[in-house]
């Protein structure tokens, strides 16, 4: 028997875990203070018996159970040492495709048990979701050096592929074996449940772990963060040593979350961040996240369509430590050439021009961006007549002066649309399978 957030959670004699609303429908007794009797929970007030299906099964002092004696229940899934509860405001059952996948290793003799952490965080839980695309903060906040970074959104799943090394300017923590880096494939299955296949690379061997990172909101300004770790045992890392490693690595992850929390504590909530080219796709992430905050009927394709953001903006020591973009691009040339294969690229032809309005005069042009640097803009007669800068240039031309290259206000508006994800950068988005 357990109580959490207005729920009573009990395991009946049949072994099933059930989640019911905590107060009794009879006269409000707290079921979480009751007693499990057989497959039912008995209210401490008048002993009404409630089944896991939410129906009242028996009123011990009455011949009949009132017909409408039903209470709210939640669908549960007990798997891999965790209890998950399906909370749908529309009260519909989960579709099979949203079932949380099994975690290889959990419950197996070759892996340790879970080592868990729970903490209350006083901010909106969107902050933790932003981490999915925020490559730069891993360098500045967590002191690691991302060397490969790729995000795929599809349906209710968002996956972050990240390899990272240590930062040369940050010494290894004392008494710990030198860590060379990590390989991580971390997927959010829905808005709050992430499974991270996380391998730590040490000089002597690789250490496989699974990090489970999940949370539930309490209100708009707080959430409960829970994370747990299991570690794969090996010849060098038998039972007890493996558990000690799980605790040590879990504590390491805890330090990372505390670094995030320190930032969240004082930062502002920003709905429309001002991003640079090298930033992650925060707007695309938030559009994906939006699907969990609207009615199912209002989920639009742009929230769930497959979107892969390639790692062309991946970090390197040069880029983050020195901000040297040119140097980095040159350095990557030979490496990219080695990986290149020839394929017909029809994205330019296939991708429609997207309407963009100038934020100054409102002129509507149609634009397509093949890269951050290259933009195609199509003007029609109406836009030409509306653009103030173009009109001024025309007037100057009549006096033999002035050459109109681009409207600076419109250029900024187009860049803004690209940063906000309204105008795709064709070079960064494709729909291949991950390589
Ligand atoms: S309030 Fe629960 S049995 Fe009466
Ligand atoms: Fe973080």
Overview of this protein structure:
A hairpin with a 5-residue loop joins strand 19 (364-369) and strand 20 (375-378). Helices cover 24% and strands 29% of the residues. The protein folds into three domains: 2-98, 3-layer Sandwich (Rieske Iron-sulfur Protein); 115-304, Naphthalene 1,2-dioxygenase Alpha Subunit, Chain A, domain 1, CATH 3.90.380; 347-428, no CATH class. The protein has a nine-stranded antiparallel β-sheet. It has 435 residues and is α+β, with helices and mostly antiparallel strands. Mean pLDDT is 85; it is low at 323-345 and 430-435. The longest helix is centred in the middle third of the chain and has 28 residues, at 239-266. It is built from eleven helices and 21 strands. Bound molecules: FE2/S2 (inorganic) cluster and fe (ii) ion (FE2).
Keywords:
single chain, 435 residues, alpha+beta, Rieske Iron-sulfur Protein, Naphthalene 1,2-dioxygenase Alpha Subunit, Chain A, domain 1, 9-stranded antiparallel β-sheet, 5-stranded antiparallel β-sheet, 21 strands, disordered C terminus, binds FE2/S2 (inorganic) cluster, binds fe (ii) ion
Topology of this structure?
Layout: E1 2-4, E2 7-11, E3 17-21, E4 35-37, E5 40-42, E6 49-50, E7 56-58, E8 73-79, E9 82-86, E10 115-121, H1 126-130, H2 135-140, E11 144-154, E12 157-166, E13 179-189, E14 193-202, E15 206-219, E16 222-231, H3 239-266, H4 282-290, H5 301-304, E17 307-309, H6 317-322, H7 325-339, H8 347-350, E18 354-357, E19 364-369, E20 375-378, H9 381-386, H10 388-398, H11 408-419, E21 429-430
Antiparallel strand pairs: 1-2, 2-3, 3-8, 4-5, 5-6, 6-7, 8-9, 10-16, 11-12, 11-17, 12-13, 13-14, 14-15, 15-16, 17-21, 18-19, 19-20
